[in-house]
């Protein structure tokens, strides 16, 4: 039997991508769509300016959009995927969890809260059990789980592999696609023939979320990893796909060949949307490239270029599709993990 799910913030860019991923899903059935007051009460096809590269699913197009309020969502919906702006999610998501709904959220609010699981299933699936702490402390019947920022999620699967060699310092410079800012986030006059050398709040997200994701869960709390992370984040005129240049210093001496072998051996999970190979390593020094490689493993994989030695450690480039693996697809994976672990 399919799990009935809803999408909060269904008309936005990530909400549309969620619908695209969920409509053919074997375990999930879309049963509720919510949006702002201006969209509530309209048919979805009228409320959403559809921009995903496939038609609106027939069963969704004529669905009436509801208000983003626990009282407006049917009681038999078991799981909600949230793509709300963080300013809205901060107030609304806890209200849904308190009302008994399990929320898998892409929004940035509460990612660093002590009792909120921040999860990449292939990296730290054990952190999901922080839900038990959350429910005890907050008295919720539901739960709130987060996936990380789209730039963080591109890099951290590779760091999860390198952690076996001891991580001391990470430096990363990102080249992030315009879709990461949303449809109206960056004007064409601002980004065409240009690079924006700062993305507000992005560096801090990478520097903090990485340490929580790589931390150890002891059954009561997450002890953050002590790795030093420094990030510089840049917006570039590509549509989709965040490309990142990473420098990693490890406590153990690691050769490029050993690192590449470790990347290739990165374990996956037996979830519907999990990639068969989490990390694809290219031998061509001109790869990965956003236009060529963002859809590796249907957009759920991480593409990595050849690893090089530096005076301090290793250097490599990594790439992921920022609206699939970095956003909607990450939330869906977390939903599949919640189902697999018996939280639905």
Can you put this structure into words, describing what you see?
With 344 residues, the chain is an alpha/beta fold. It folds into two domains: 3-149 and 327-340, Rossmann fold, CATH 3.40.50; 150-321, Dihydrodipicolinate Reductase, domain 2. Helices cover 30% and strands 22% of the residues. The chain contains twelve helices and 15 strands. It has helices spanning 13-22, 44-47, 58-61, 86-98, 121-124, 130-138, 150-162, 188-191, 202-213, 256-264, 290-293, 324-340, and strands spanning 3-8, 28-35, 66-67, 79-82, 102-105, 143-146, 167-176, 216-217, 222-223, 228-235, 242-250, 279-281, 302-304, 308-309, 314-320. It is globular. The model has no long low-confidence stretch (mean pLDDT 96).
In which range does the helix fraction lie? Answer: 25-40%
Helices and strands: which structural class? alpha/beta
Tell me the major beta sheet.
Answer: 7 strands, mixed
**Low-confidence spans:** none
Name of the CATH first level of the largest domain: Alpha Beta
CATH architecture of the largest domain: 2-Layer Sandwich
Task: Tell me the strand percentage band.
Answer: 15-25%
| Quantity of strands, as a count | 15
- End-to-end gap: 12 Å
Number of domains: 2
Provide a quick synopsis of the model.
The chain is α/β, with parallel strands linked by helices and 344 residues long.
List keywords for this structure.
Rossmann fold, 2 domains, six-stranded parallel beta sheet, Dihydrodipicolinate Reductase, domain 2, single chain, 12 helices, seven-stranded mixed beta sheet, alpha/beta, 344 residues
């Amino acid at each position: 039997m399919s799990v009935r799910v809803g999408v909060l913030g269904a008309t936005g860019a990530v909400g549309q991508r969620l619908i695209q991923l969920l409509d053919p899903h074997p375990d999930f059935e879309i049963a509720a769509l919510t949006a702002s007051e201006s969209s509530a009460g309209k048919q979805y096809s009228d409320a959403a300016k559809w921009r995903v590269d496939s038609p609106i699913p027939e069963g969704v197009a004529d669905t009436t959009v509801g208000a983003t309020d626990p009282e407006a969502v049917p009681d038999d919906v078991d799981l909600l995927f949230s793509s709300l702006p963080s300013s809205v999610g901060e107030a609304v998501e806890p209200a849904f969890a308190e009302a008994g709904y399990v929320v898998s959220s892409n929004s940035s609010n509460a990612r660093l809260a002590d009792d909120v699981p921040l999860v990449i299933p292939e990296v730290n699936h054990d952190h999901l059990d922080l839900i038990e702490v959350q429910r005890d402390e907050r008295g919720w019947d539901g739960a709130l789980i987060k996936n990380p920022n789209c730039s963080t999620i591109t890099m951290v699967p590779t760091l999860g592999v390198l952690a076996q060699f001891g991580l001391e310092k990470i430096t990363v410079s990102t080249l992030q696609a315009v879709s990461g800012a949303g449809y109206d986030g960056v004007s064409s006059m601002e980004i065409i023939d240009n690079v924006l050398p700062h993305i507000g709040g992005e560096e801090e997200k990478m520097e903090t979320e990485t340490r929580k994701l790589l931390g150890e869960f002891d059954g009561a709390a997450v002890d953050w990893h002590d790795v030093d992370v420094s990030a510089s984040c840049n917006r570039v005129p590509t549509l989709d796909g965040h490309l990142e240049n990473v420098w990693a210093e490890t406590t153990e001496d690691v050769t490029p060949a050993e690192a590449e072998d470790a990347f290739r051996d990165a374990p996956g999970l037996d979830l519907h949307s999990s990639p068969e190979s989490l990390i694809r390593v290219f031998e061509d020094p001109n790869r990965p490239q956003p236009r060529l490689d963002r859809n590796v493993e249907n957009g759920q994989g991480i593409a990595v270029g050849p690893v090089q030695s530096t005076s301090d450690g290793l250097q490599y480039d990594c790439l992921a599709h920022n609206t699939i693996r970095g956003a909607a697809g990450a939330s869906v994976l977390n939903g599949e993990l919640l189902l697999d672990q018996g939280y639905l």
